[in-house]
Design goal:
- The protein folds into 3 domains: 184 residues, no CATH class; 65 residues; 123 residues, Heat Shock Protein 90, CATH 3.30.565.10.
- It has 12 helices and 5 strands.
- The radius of gyration is 40 Å and the shape is elongated.
Length: 421
């Protein structure tokens, strides 16, 4: 692979490169901040040795409180330093609920505060020592690599005199060059450690952030599902109160015309009869559509009445058992209703069953729906038959969906829906 290093561009770790000076400046800029916490804790003890417990406790309180108060401003300073010098955007930590000056000791109960203290009092000072080592490496390297520039002016008796100690001077000059070559690498290493510590200890905890995002997404998904259910109910009401009533009126008028008109030509009467039959069929289809959107009886009387109506329309004997002492949310009830309705439709179309058992039970915070038939079996969600759509509908409310259907039967569909909302 051809090198992308241009002839006029410095190598990343060369002593004269911009990256080397950037890393050095970044590590050096953190030294005052890294030592600030220990400076606050140590200054009151300078030259003072209390002899009893009371002054010691007072000194500890007097030094610990400023550290707690300044921990968050120091964290913001490190975030700004990372952004200004490296272009690294570190997400901010959540603010203290009561404010730092109202109850700073309450912050000790949070994991964020302990992570901040770990950075400011433990990791930070170690990084500061590394930064000082980088500066010492640069300083010693510059002084030693340029020793030949000023050694000639030293007297002959000096340890660095070119006249009497030329070999020693050359070795020191070589050592200085090595230190200059090592300084950028050391600065880069300290910078990488500092960045890793800042993103790990001074940024929101990734696990908690992911947990918060999952909860937020779950809430938004629940809102979308509820909104869709509300929209279905609105459409059902509009169709029930609007189009259905017009069709009922039309069918009644055509029926009256069919029964009362006399002396009408046969062709005209045939048109009236056909229009009457078409109106009744359209009304039947519209009622079926309305029940498919959201049956009004489900909202008014609950699952027992709604499922009893579904079971009564199935041409296969259905044994229905509904035990729901406390109603769940309208969204969960709608999912349970459509699960039973679609399952019974599948039984009629595909199972060739002679009987079906349906059980809807509320067990604590779970609504359990079980539909079993004695048909030929072989139901597979991967092959369609409406089971895939049912599974998606169940998962939309964080429910579980299981189908047991060996070849030859029987088939059992089990759905569990969380209803403690």
């Amino acid at each position: 692979m051809a090198s992308t290093q241009g002839p006029g561009r410095a190598r990343p770790h060369a002593p004269w490169s911009s990256a080397a000076w950037r890393d050095t400046a970044f590590t050096a800029s953190g030294v005052p901040l890294h030592f600030a916490g220990w400076a606050i804790l140590g200054v009151p003890w300078w030259g003072l040795m209390p002899v009893n417990a009371t002054p010691i406790l007072l000194l500890v309180a007097a030094t610990a409180l400023p550290v707690l108060l300044l921990a968050r401003p120091a964290t913001r300073a490190h975030r700004e330093r990372a952004w200004a010098m490296l272009g690294l955007d570190v997400p901010p930590l959540p603010e203290w609920p009561d404010g730092p000056f109202r109850s700073p000791l309450r912050a000790l109960r949070t994991a964020e505060m302990w992570r901040e203290l770990r950075y400011h009092l433990l990791v930070g000072p170690l990084l500061a020592c590394g930064a000082l080592l980088v500066l010492a490496c640069w300083t010693a390297g510059l002084l030693l690599s340029t020793v030949v520039l000023y050694a000639w002016a030293l007297p002959d008796g000096s340890t660095l005199s070119l006249g009497t100690h030329a070999v020693r001077t050359a070795l020191l000059c070589a050592l200085g060059v090595l230190l200059l070559a090592a300084a950028p690498l050391l600065a880069s290493a300290v910078r990488a450690l500092d960045v890793a510590a800042v993103t790990t200890l001074l940024a929101p905890d990734r696990a908690k952030e992911l947990e918060r995002r999952v909860e937020d997404l779950a809430e938004k998904r629940a809102e979308v599902v509820d909104a869709a259910d509300l929209e279905r109910r609105r459409i059902e009401r509009d169709l029930h109160d609007g189009a259905q009533q017009r069709l009922v009126s039309l069918a009644l008028n055509l029926g009256l015309a069919r029964e009362t008109l006399t002396g009408v030509p046969d062709d005209a009467m045939k048109v009236i009869v056909e229009a009457h039959e078409e109106a009744k069929e359209a009304l039947t289809e519209l009622r079926t559509l309305i029940r498919g959107l959201h049956p009004a009886v489900l909202e008014d009387r609950g699952l027992d009445a709604a499922l009893s109506g579904v079971a009564a329309r199935v041409p296969v004997p259905v044994r229905l058992r509904v035990e729901v002492p406390e109603r769940a949310s309208s969204t969960v009830e709608a999912v349970a209703y459509f699960v039973v309705s679609e399952a019974l439709t599948n039984v009629v179309k595909h199972a060739r069953a002679t009987s079906v058992e349906v059980a809807v039970l509320r067990e604590g915070a779970t609504l359990r729906v079980v539909v079993g038939d004695d048909g030929v079996g072989g139901a597979d969600p991967a092959r369609g038959t409406g089971l895939t759509g049912l599974a998606r509908r169940v998962r939309s409310v964080d429910g579980t969906f299981r189908v047991t259907s060996p070849a030859g039967g029987p088939t059992t569909l089990t759905v569990e829906l969380p209803c403690a909302l």
